[in-house]
Design a protein that fits this description.
The complex is a heterodimer of chains A (231) and B (189). With 231 residues, chain A is mostly beta strands. Chain A has a single domain (35-220), classed as Protocatechuate 3,4-Dioxygenase, subunit A, CATH 2.60.130. Chain A is built from 2 helices and 14 strands. Chain B has 189 residues and is mainly β. In chain B, the strands form 2 sheets. In chain B, strands 1, 4, 7, 8 and 9 form a 5-stranded mixed β-sheet that branches. A 4-stranded antiparallel β-sheet of chain B has the order 3-2-5-6, with no helix packed on it. Chain B is globular, with a radius of gyration of 17 Å. Chain B starts with 15 loop residues before the first helix and ends with a strand. Classes of the chains: A mainly beta (231), B mainly beta (189). Chains A and B meet through strand 2, helix 1, strand 4, strand 5 and strand 10 of A and helix 1, strand 5 and strand 10 of B. Strand 2 (33-34) of chain A pairs parallel with strand 10 (187-188) of chain B, so a sheet runs across the interface. Bound molecules: fe (iii) ion (FE). Residues 151, 154, 156 of chain A line the site of fe (iii) ion.
């Protein structure tokens, strides 16, 4: 059986990252136990076309009117560490509206809701692992982690890949955002080159004339070892 | 190589916007046969406070130990219509509940059978990566030989095994404790 490779040191966040205050009471304190990969870890749910709403990729068409803000296209490829496309895989996103407000009862930020924007989308990758969303550039929003804390603009991404072991939830950021260097969530990834892979790239090929700026965000899932290991 | 795995980030407090559409807490739907069980519990933080903004995902085999997935190369065929995936949020009191069927045995290392178990991912604000754990079933004769349970220090194994209710053995209780004396065992998947 092919096992998934473990991440290189420092390329994933530590569970306990004290600058992110919520991690202090929620991160486990005991060392994690390395789980050998069996069929339970190398299989995972695969979602069919029937499950995913056909218009799920377009967050600007879920209501009667057009949402306010800067329309953008976010697209990219889902690949594994060896560059192989991850086809027909579910991608889910959620985000704040252009004013930095989520459509959620817990969000008390004093910014307007947009009756034409829910901020959720879902799609399947194609044969080449490509996905594409049409949405609104989300606003920055304040949070109470520390004095004058503001989250950089971001879109939450959830992807499954082929196995339980490849499940990944992450956030996509925007190039040139001045808030990135102050954000404890972004900076929870120790290695800078790994962290920077969370920042999308402005992309002319994705930019649609007269319609929307385009951002490319490729997502890399774990690769597999061909050699038997960890008995 | 096209680079390393994209780093994980927290789901934050508002994940229900994006993840709620796929909530399913009846995993037994579509299963043919198998012992029906309800599993319920709470998620508690380091101060023993319930966590009202968490989300669980379950992945499991059917009653014959077969995963509903093309890559599953076992010769057993999956029970028709059984999916094996569930997702459910905790409520305001930090509680979750789902119904499923007890899975069969799945092969482990060296093709030795594993004890019936559910694979579980835990997501919440404050977790920069998902937590991975397993849920095992009480008094299963295969538990003592299970290779994963045997990787866990003896004193902590009980955190992975659900407890039957005295008045209804088909209701199992299983709490997730993020920290503290009875901290649940979590795995590096
Ligand atoms: Fe957010």
């Amino acid at each position: 059986m092919l096992r998934y490779r473990r991440p290189a040191p420092g390329t994933q966040p530590e569970l306990l990252h004290p600058p992110y205050v919520s991690s202090i009471k929620r991160a486990p304190t005991q060392p994690l136990i390395q789980l050998p990969h069996t069929l339970s870890e190398t299989t995972g749910p695969s979602f069919s076309k029937e499950v995913v709403p056909p218009k799920g990729f377009d967050l600007t068409r879920q209501h009667k009117g057009e949402p306010l803000g800067e329309r953008i296209v976010v697209s990219g490829r889902l690949v594994d560490e060896d560059g192989r496309p991850v086809a027909h895989s579910l991608v889910e996103i959620w985000q704040a509206n252009a004013a930095g407000r989520y459509l959620h009862k817990v969000d008390q930020h004093d910014a307007p809701l947009d009756p034409n924007f829910t901020g959720m989308g879902q799609t399947l990758t194609d044969e080449e692992g490509r996905y594409r969303f049409v949405t609104i550039r989300p606003g920055a929003y304040p949070w109470r982690n520390h004095y004058n804390a503001w989250r950089p603009r971001h879109i939450h991404f959830s992807v499954f890949g082929p196995a339980f072991a490849t499940r990944l939830v992450t956030q996509m950021y925007f190039p040139g955002d001045p808030l990135l260097e102050f954000d404890p969530i972004y900076n929870s990834v120790p290695v800078e080159s790994a962290r920077k892979r969370l920042i999308s790239i402005f992309d002319w090929a994705t930019t649609t004339p007269e319609i929307a700026l385009g951002f490319r965000f490729d997502i890399v899932l774990r690769g597999r070892n061909a050699t038997p290991m960890e008995r | 190589m096209s680079g390393e795995t994209t780093p994980s980030q927290t789901v934050g407090p508002y994940f229900s916007i994006g993840l709620g559409w796929l909530n399913r807490c009846d995993l037994a739907r579509g299963a043919s046969g198998g012992e029906r069980v309800t599993i319920r519990g709470r998620i508690l933080d380091g101060e023993g406070q319930p966590v009202p903004d968490a989300c669980l995902e379950i992945w499991q085999a059917d009653a014959h130990g077969k995963y509903a997935q093309p890559e599953n190369s076992q010769e057993k065929s999956p029970a028709q219509g059984f999916f094996g995936f569930g997702r459910m949020p905790t409520n305001d009191r930090g509680e979750f509940s789902f119904t499923t069927i007890k899975p069969g045995s799945v092969p482990g290392p060296d093709d030795r059978p594993q004890a019936p178990h559910l694979e579980i991912s835990v997501f919440m604000r404050g977790l920069l990566r998902r937590l991975v754990t397993r849920l095992y079933f009480p008094n299963d004769p295969a538990n003592p030989a299970d290779h994963v349970l045997n990787l866990v220090p003896v004193g902590r194994r009980a955190t992975l095994i659900a407890r039957p209710l005295a008045e209804d053995p088909h209701i199992l209780e299983w709490d997730i404790r993020l920290q503290g004396e009875h901290e649940t065992v979590f795995f590096e998947c």
